[in-house]
Amino acid sequence: MSRIDLHLHTTHSDGSLRPSDVLALAKQANVSALAITDHDITTGIPEAMAAGQELGIEVIPGVEISSFDGKSELHILGYCVNWNEAAFNQRLARLRESRHRRNPLILERLREAGLDVTYDEVCALAGTESVGRPHIAQLLMQKKYVNSAKEAFDRYLAEGKPAYVARELPTPAEAISWIREAKGVAVLAHPTWVKESGEGLRTCVKALKEAGLGGVEVHYSTHTKSQTSQYLELARQLDLLVTGGSDFHGVTKPDIDVGNGRGDLKVNPRLLLPLKEAAARL
Ligand SMILES: [Zn+2]
Ligand SMILES: [Zn+2]
Predict the structure, then answer these.
(1) Within a 13 Å sphere around the CA of 41, how many CA atoms are in the beta-carbon half?
(2) Which ligand is nearest the CA of 15, by number?
(3) N or C: which end of the chain has fewer CB within 10 A?
(4) How far is the CA of 251 from the centre of ligand 2 (A)?
(5) What is the per-residue pLDDT across 142-157, written as a single tens digit (0 to 9) for each?
(6) pTM for this structure?
(7) How far is the CA of 8 from the centre of ligand 1 (A)?
């Protein structure tokens, strides 16, 4: 049976494969519909749509916007967005600039820690407008300072580590309103990032719903069975849509495959219609 995958990254942000290559993998994995959700950028969508047409895969225009609620970095996915709308893209461009301000500071800290790395090297390796920490991790791997992207984050780049630099980010409510203004459905990505559980999580997601959130990413590569059922119950209680995706990145997350996650992800194609209907009502 076919499946869908509503969370995929490409070379337009920090994924390692071009949109057309991601679509080719999706075809092999029997994915009938997917969303390209690059970080803070929509430029990968046209190539994905063209490839989708050729391969018979429905491509939902998507994006993943980073935000900060004062406690946790929360990622808000946008689906069925008017991805070529000027105002929306200007907002995303400003958000990417905040990374450009942050990245050189991270590199400075890495040099202070004794690593021989420059931001020019990171940009050359990234080859995209949307340069992020995974690209820095890739450079650290290339230069043999670490063996994996995970090690780069654990030793240097993650919050609390020597090269961590906080970023100016919109609030989740702002990210949601940008997506809504571009006629998209806003969905909370990987809810494990909410540093709350039980009632605290419910309160947080309820507040996001009041700000316009339309759904929760219940099915996700790294969710345990109990997390999946917890988020499913939460979505039911709060009357939010259920979505799911792998968060495929290619080499920076080598254990995650398009459509299959870590092997046991299978997002039901039936989840797509309610999402599209919700977008049509906006
Ligand atoms: Zn994310
Ligand atoms: Zn993602």
Answers:
(1) 21
(2) 2
(3) N
(4) 14
(5) 999 999 999 999 999 9
(6) 0.87
(7) 10
